[in-house]
Design brief:
By secondary structure, the protein is of the alpha/beta class. The protein contains twelve helices and 15 strands. The protein has an eight-stranded mixed sheet, with helices on both faces. The two termini are about 30 Å apart.
Length: about 350
């Protein structure tokens, strides 16, 4: 019954052409960008970094997606969560319960200021969590999704997948040399932002042209053992033999997507676009009990300068950065650098480590 209380959102005309395109990339660990041990060349994100603001010591609120992303959107540090009345409540450092709903997030502030937003997620069901029916996809709180698990329960698809994998591995083993020289142009039409949402990379152009002020993508890549991993295997025609190989394969695919995302933004008519590439947490298997920095790259389309920043901070500043850019309080990479420099010092030991 609580889910029936849908929040009404203002659909008035936007007051600015400015856009923020924010990609939350699941478990993207920035330490791999220049990592020589893995032998992976992530050339596109390296190139983008030459013309961006990079912060090397941004920490997510948690190593858990369910705690980290809601905490970032709520602009609060977390010390866990609870479920009450079918609603997610984030526990802050004072052990207060903050409901993860539309009213408590920065989406409400965007709406009050006539900034239009679009939430596109294949990870968390934001439409249901925030109890909104518009300006987001995909709403898992719909009857048509209640039957999704029937084929999993009664048709043994998992066994077929495992048998299929055994045959694939014979001729399609992971090969780092082939991956390095892989030509993605031959498979551009197969490039997907999300197989789960049926979003091709070419669809991004239409999404950007909608003139929404904030377009927020939360994608599974490069997280391993995710619904995207099987598609990535098919794209490269390779089957990894370990979690490390799967992660490298997913990073390479993500890098190709980043290149296409940059191209679409650069070719758009709008010059006032801020691209944010962030991650919800580091690669947990590399550091399960202590935090590592998460990804943070910001790129204003018309600014070609590079700024690199150090010093531990928390990524809960991201909503404020977005609002300041849309309000034209931030116009350049130099402004972003100053904004980041003014963030309070953060003790990385405050990162909430959720243990399964």
């Amino acid at each position: 019954l609580y889910y029936l209380d849908i929040t009404e959102i203002n659909d008035s005309k936007t007051i600015t052409d400015r856009q923020v395109i924010w990609f939350m990339l699941d478990e993207y660990d920035p330490s791999y960008i220049n990592d020589k041990k893995s032998n992976i060349n992530l050339k596109y994100i390296k190139n983008l970094s030459k013309y961006s603001v990079i912060h090397n010591q941004v920490y997510s609120p948690s190593n858990s997606t369910l705690h980290s992303v809601p905490s970032t959107i709520l602009r609060t540090q977390t010390d866990g969560s609870t479920i009450e009345n079918y609603q997610l409540k984030i526990l802050n450092k004072q052990n207060e319960k903050i409901t993860f709903n539309f009213e408590n997030t920065f989406f409400k502030q965007l709406n009050e200021n006539s900034f239009k937003f679009n939430i596109i997620s294949e990870v968390l069901p934001y439409c249901s969590l925030l109890q909104i029916e518009s300006f987001c996809r995909k709403n898992f709180n719909q009857i048509k999704y209640y039957t999704d698990s029937i084929k999993q329960a009664f048709f043994f698809t998992g066994y077929f997948d495992k048998l299929s994998d055994k045959f694939k591995k014979k001729n399609k083993e992971f090969n780092i040399e082939k991956l390095t020289i892989f030509n993605e142009n031959d498979r551009y039409n197969q490039l997907l932002l999300s197989e789960k949402l049926d979003l091709k990379i070419s669809d991004l152009k239409n999404i950007v042209n909608t003139k929404d002020n904030l377009i927020f993508f939360h994608l599974f890549i490069p997280h391993t053992n995710s619904p995207t991993s099987k598609y990535v295997e098919r794209f490269f025609d390779m089957v990894p033999g370990s979690d490390d190989e799967e992660y490298i394969l997913n990073l390479k695919y993500t890098d190709i997507l980043i290149n296409q995302i940059s191209n679409i933004i650069n070719n758009s008519d709008n010059d006032d676009i801020l691209l944010l590439l962030t991650s919800d947490h580091w690669r947990r298997s590399d550091s399960p009990f202590s935090p590592k920095p998460s990804l943070f790259i910001s790129k204003i389309k018309k600014d070609l300068t590079k700024h690199e920043i150090n010093g531990d901070i928390s990524n809960i500043f991201i909503p404020s950065l977005i609002i300041k850019y849309l309000n034209k309080e931030i116009d350049s990479h130099k402004d972003i650098k100053l904004f980041l420099k003014n963030q309070g010092e953060f003790d990385k030991n405050e990162v909430y480590i959720w243990k399964k």
